């Protein structure tokens, strides 16, 4: 939710770019920042540096790490499962993120029409985002999409028989997890809603006077003015999707099965580090993931020049 | 409205995945040291509700033997146990006494994480000889002590046999072909959704039995103990079970691999035969309402003596090499495996006690289900094959590899020849460190 707070304060033009006053007494600020700062150091920065070091070692967890230079990175090129995991993750990102954003945008536009009980619907639609990453929902998913699960029972009543176990068939398992991801459209939706509120009403009024229809107003006003928000959501969701772990871990019972069809990159990384006693390799994989995510983000920013419209 | 700079700033809140690989030891919630004077031990095991209760009971009872020692119990689930143990070892925070599995014994032992119990003076004179050897790692010594013996079994749910109107087989003469046709008959004679046999092609124990009957084994002293053709034969058998509907289709079989005992097809009366380890008889028998019969695995020749079964240590107790309370830890393990009092509390839940004195002493305390397991272990005593070599480093991955290759085959993504070769190749690369 902090992103939204940030966004609103940003949109209102407060808190940024003002006069930089010199405050000689920064101590209270540091004290208030301490919990976050300690977290950043202890849970993010120091482990990151440690993992950078470990990525150049042969480290089994059980014995001291041994420096092996670039060997881990060289090994990655011959690792068939690593390639599988990259493929799975890329499909997940490239299919899942646009679908999720499209759904989020569609619902945000609908909710922005000024319907009654907006806050109620907003909460309802946001709910999956709170739950979606949780273990409980992943287990529920597993039950629902099993061979004898709810989905197949309902389909059976409608006359469809001989359906697969969606989770346990390699050709549908990944699709089921993508569906779970799409379902958690709540947080981009809220951000879209906030963005929609920022679009001045007068543009629409003027367009209406000129005789623009609903669709025209959407494509000519809403979409262009919303592009910075779409872009923001896109970058964030791509990064998030690359790091997805819980769903795949729980749904496949930690195996990435059936037949490695849900072997997410992070899941393989976890297997390498914690069940195959190869933390050095896992650390190297983590850094490769950082590079991949960085490349995607850079591409995103580069391409954004051609489609994102900044009103400044 | 929004500027480039702001959008950029927002996206810098990124790389949490990095910390996944580097997170520190999984600190346990329980206290580690009593501190002043009185010493404390930490004991971690994986298990189930029954084992947790019995083990806590044993810890309490030990409080009367050694009153100024406090032992903190750290039970865990199998699935989380190994992650937790590995991170604790990495953080220098390994519990003093741990439960160990054969799959990971050399993984930990060869890296110096475990104490040589023989040197530390653990008493093993009442043990069956082979059961002590099962805890020895070559060149390292006795790194773990057998906590109970088990053997691979085929469980039969008598209720499903009755429904099908089919008699239980004679397990001293049956062959793999008999098993396949019997299972197919049961599937045919029962309702839709009830099967003769679980897909045993995805089960490590079956694989090992099958290899041993081919004159091979899962491992030899130099690595994998079988050839690609051997694996191919086994996988072809598994595939044929699916084709004749003796076993469920691939999708159902995959779901079954992650299932808990009471949710399993077997315990819910939807499957007549299931592979298990003998120490699981109690759990399955309870879940299936006491209708479980314990059968020998079939053989290639139809002679029980050729079934090549073996006594496996169902699990071990081991002591951390870095424990600060070595004497107390070894004394506690000594009491767990040698004392009749401990035996009466722990019974046969971790497998049939390898300590013969204890086994005799607890005979009267066993439940009906326990007795089924104990009787089985004793009845195969004269039919055993050679003891298998200990799982090498990296061998802990075998089950995952078998599952993967098996799934590829059962879903028709590969043929038996490729699946057999993949199985051998992947295992070989896993154990070549």
From TrEMBL, chain A:
It is a multi-pass membrane protein. Its main location: membrane. Residues 86-300 form the ABC transmembrane type-1 domain. It holds the Pfam family BPD_transp_1. Gene3D superfamilies: MetI-like. It is found in: Cell membrane. Residues 1-22 are annotated as: Disordered. Keywords: Cell membrane, Membrane, Transmembrane, Transmembrane helix, Transport. The chain crosses the membrane at residues 30-56, 90-111, 123-141, 173-196, 217-239, 282-303. PANTHER family: ABC TRANSPORTER PERMEASE PROTEIN, ABC TRANSPORTER PERMEASE PROTEIN YESP-RELATED. Belongs to the binding-protein-dependent transport system permease family. This is Sugar ABC transporter permease. It comes from Brachybacterium halotolerans. The lineage of its organism: Bacteria, Bacillati, Actinomycetota, Actinomycetes, Micrococcales.
From TrEMBL, chain B:
The keyword Signal applies. Residues 1-21 form the signal peptide. It comes from the Bacteria. The keyword Signal applies. Keywords: Signal. PROSITE patterns: PROKAR_LIPOPROTEIN. PANTHER family: ABC TRANSPORTER SUBSTRATE-BINDING PROTEIN YESO-RELATED, ARABINOSE-BINDING PROTEIN-RELATED. This is Extracellular solute-binding protein. It comes from Brachybacterium halotolerans.
């Amino acid at each position: 939710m902090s992103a939204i707070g940030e966004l609103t304060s940003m949109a209102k033009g407060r808190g940024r770019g003002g006069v930089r006053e010199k405050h000689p007494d920064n101590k209270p600020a540091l004290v208030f920042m301490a919990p976050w700062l300690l977290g950043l150091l202890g849970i993010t920065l120091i482990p990151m540096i440690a993992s950078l070091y470990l990525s150049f070692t042969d480290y089994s967890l059980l014995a001291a790490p041994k420096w092996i230079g670039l060997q881990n990175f060289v090994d990655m090129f011959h690792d068939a499962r690593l390639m599988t995991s990259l493929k799975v993750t890329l499909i997940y990102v490239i299919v899942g993120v646009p679908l999720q954003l499209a759904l989020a945008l569609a619902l945000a536009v609908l909710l922005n029409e000024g319907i009654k009980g907006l806050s109620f619907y907003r909460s309802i639609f946001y709910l999956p985002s709170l739950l979606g990453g949780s273990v409980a929902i992943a287990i529920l998913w597993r039950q629902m999409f099993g061979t004898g699960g709810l989905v197949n029972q309902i389909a059976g009543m409608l006359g469809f028989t001989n359906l697969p176990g969606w989770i346990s068939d390699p050709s549908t398992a990944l699709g089921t997890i993508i569906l779970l991801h799409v379902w958690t459209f709540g947080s981009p939706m809220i951000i879209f809603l906030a963005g929609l509120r920022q679009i001045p009403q007068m543009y629409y009024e003027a367009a209406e006077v000129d005789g623009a229809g609903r669709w025209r107003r959407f494509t000519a006003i809403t979409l262009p003015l919303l592009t910075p928000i779409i872009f923001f959501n896109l970058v964030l969701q791509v990064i998030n999707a690359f790091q997805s772990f819980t769903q795949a871990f729980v749904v496949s019972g930690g195996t990435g099965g059936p037949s490695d069809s849900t072997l997410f990159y992070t899941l393989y990384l976890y297997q390498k580090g914690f069940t195959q006693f190869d933390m050095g390799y896992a650390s190297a994989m983590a850094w490769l993931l950082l590079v991949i995510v960085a490349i995607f983000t850079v591409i995103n920013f580069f391409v954004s020049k051609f489609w994102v419209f900044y009103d400044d | 409205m929004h500027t480039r700079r702001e959008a950029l700033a927002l996206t810098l809140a990124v790389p949490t995945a990095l910390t996944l690989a580097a997170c520190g030891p999984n600190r346990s919630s329980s206290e580690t040291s009593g501190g002043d004077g009185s010493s404390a031990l930490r004991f971690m095991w994986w298990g189930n509700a029954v084992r947790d209760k019995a083990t806590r009971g044993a810890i309490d009872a030990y409080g009367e033997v050694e009153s100024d020692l406090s032992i903190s119990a750290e039970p865990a689930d199998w699935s989380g146990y190994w992650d937790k143990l590995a991170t604790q070892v990495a953080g220098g925070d390994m519990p003093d006494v741990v439960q160990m599995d054969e799959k990971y014994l050399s993984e930990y032992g060869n890296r110096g994480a475990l104490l040589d119990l023989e040197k530390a003076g653990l008493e093993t004179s009442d043990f069956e000889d082979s059961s002590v050897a099962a805890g020895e790692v070559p060149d390292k010594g006795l790194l773990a002590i057998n906590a109970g013996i088990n053997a691979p079994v085929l469980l039969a749910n008598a209720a499903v046999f009755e429904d099908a109107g089919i008699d239980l087989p004679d397990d001293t003469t049956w062959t793999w072909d008999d098993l396949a046709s019997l299972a197919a008959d049961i599937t045919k004679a029962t309702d839709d959704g009830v099967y003769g046999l679980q897909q045993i092609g995805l089960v490590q124990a079956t694989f090992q039995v099958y290899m041993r009957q081919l004159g091979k084994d899962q491992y030899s002293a130099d690595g994998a103990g079988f050839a690609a053709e051997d694996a191919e034969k086994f996988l072809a058998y598994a595939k044929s079970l699916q084709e004749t509907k003796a076993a469920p289709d691939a999708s159902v079989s995959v779901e079954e691999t992650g299932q808990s005992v009471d949710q399993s097809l077997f315990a819910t009366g939807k499957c007549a035969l299931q592979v298990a380890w003998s120490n699981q008889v109690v759990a399955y028998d309870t879940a299936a309402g006491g209708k479980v019969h314990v059968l020998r695995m079939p053989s290639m020749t139809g002679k029980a003596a050729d079934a090549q079964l073996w006594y496996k240590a169902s699990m071990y107790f081991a002591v951390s090499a870095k424990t600060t309370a070595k004497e107390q830890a070894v004394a506690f393990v000594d009491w767990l495996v040698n004392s009749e009092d401990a035996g009466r509390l722990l019974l046969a839940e971790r497998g049939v006690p390898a300590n013969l004195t204890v086994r005799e002493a607890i005979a009267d305390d066993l439940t009906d289900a326990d007795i089924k397991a104990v009787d089985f272990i004793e009845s195969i005593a004269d039919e055993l094959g050679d003891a298998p070599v200990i799982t090498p480093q990296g061998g802990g991955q075998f089950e995952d590899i078998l599952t993967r290759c098996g799934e590829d085959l059962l879903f028709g993504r590969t043929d038996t020849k490729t699946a057999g070769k993949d199985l051998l190749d992947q295992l070989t690369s896993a154990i070549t460190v």
